[in-house]
Amino acid sequence: MVVAKAAALTWTHSVSPSLHIPQSFSVRDARRFRPFCASDQSQKVPVSGFRENEMIVSITGATGFIGRRLVQRLRADNHTVQVLTRSRSRAELIFPVKDYPGLIVVEEPKWKNCIQMSKAVVNLAGMPISTRWSSEIKKEIKDSRIRVTSKVVDYINASPEENRPTVLVSATAAGYYGTSETQVFDERSPSGNDYLAEVCRIWEATALKVNKDVRVALIRIGVVLGKDGGALAKMVPLFMMFAGGPLGSGRQWFSWIHVDDLVNLIYEALINPSYKARFNRSYQWDCAESGTLGRIVWTAGRGIRPALLVARSRICPQSGARRRCLCGFGRTKGGPC
C-alpha cells in the first residue's frame, strides 16, 4: 500500500477508493501545526461507493470522545442510533433532545432488545487508560472491556436469525503488539507479552465469539487526537503554559489518528462488506526521526508554544500516561490483513 505524502493537515490518500484515510501524515512546516490539528471533516469526507439504506445502529461507549463523533456522523446520514449506556442521565446530558431528535437512549437492562432490532453494532466501551494505574484500576480497565464485549456478543448470538445484526465493529488497541522503540508492527505481527497486550488479546477473542454469520471488523486504534478530547486535550494546556515536553526519554513511538478519520473508518466498516478481520488505524510520521513522542512534542511546541519547563518522567512516576506515554506503543503500519 502506498504511503501518502500529505501536506500538513491535508489528507488526500485512502485505503479504499474514496475513503480519505492516508497511511502517513507529515508536518513539513511546524509553524502550520495548531493545537486543534484539523478542521471538522466528519460531514465532508466521502466514504466508499457502497451505499446503505438507513440503518439502526446500536453503540456502546457512545458518550466517549469517539462515540460522540460517531453518533453525529450516523445521524447526519439519517441512520437511527441507539445509545447503549449505563447512565441515562449522562447520555441525555451529552445528547440533548433538542440537538439529537430521534436519538434512542437505552440503559443496560434493555440492551438485548435494542441489539436484536439493530442492523449493526459498534462496540467502543472501555474505561480510559490515561490515569494512574493501581491494581484496582488495571482490573477495571480489563473488566470494563471484556464484560461489555461479552454481553454484546451474547445478545447478538441470542437474536433470532431474522433479527440478528449483520455486522459488529469492535474497538481494540495498538497495545496488542506490546512496546518497542525499534520494531515496526502490522496486522500480521504477533501479540506482545505485557499487560495491555493481554487485555487486547482477550478483548478481541471475546468479540470473535460472535455468530459466524455476523461480519466482524476489529479496529486496533492508536492515540486518538482531536480538538475537543483525546490525548491532545491533555497535552495542549501544558504547552499553553510553556511546560509541554515529552514524558520519559521521548524515544517512544507515538502512533496516532485524528478522530474524524477514525469515525469515517468505522462508518466504512459498517457499510462495506469487504471490511473484515483486523485493521490497524493509527498514523505514523514519514520517518523514524519524526515518529517518536519527543519529535512530535517538539513539533507541537513550535506550533503552539515552546517548552520552557519540560515535564520529565519523575513528575508522574507511576501514572498510566507515563507507562504508555499517552498510549504510544510501537510503530504501527495501518491496513487490512
From TrEMBL:
The residues covered by the NAD-dependent epimerase/dehydratase domain are 58-273
- One matching Pfam family: Epimerase
What stretches pass through the bilayer? none
Q: Which InterPro entries match?
A: Epimerase_deHydtase (IPR001509), NAD(P)-bd_dom_sf (IPR036291), SDR39U1 (IPR010099)
> What is this protein's record name?
Epimerase family protein SDR39U1 homolog, chloroplastic isoform X3
Please name the source species: Rhodamnia argentea
Q: What is the lineage of its organism?
A: Eukaryota, Viridiplantae, Streptophyta, Embryophyta, Tracheophyta
- Gene from which this protein is expressed: LOC115729993
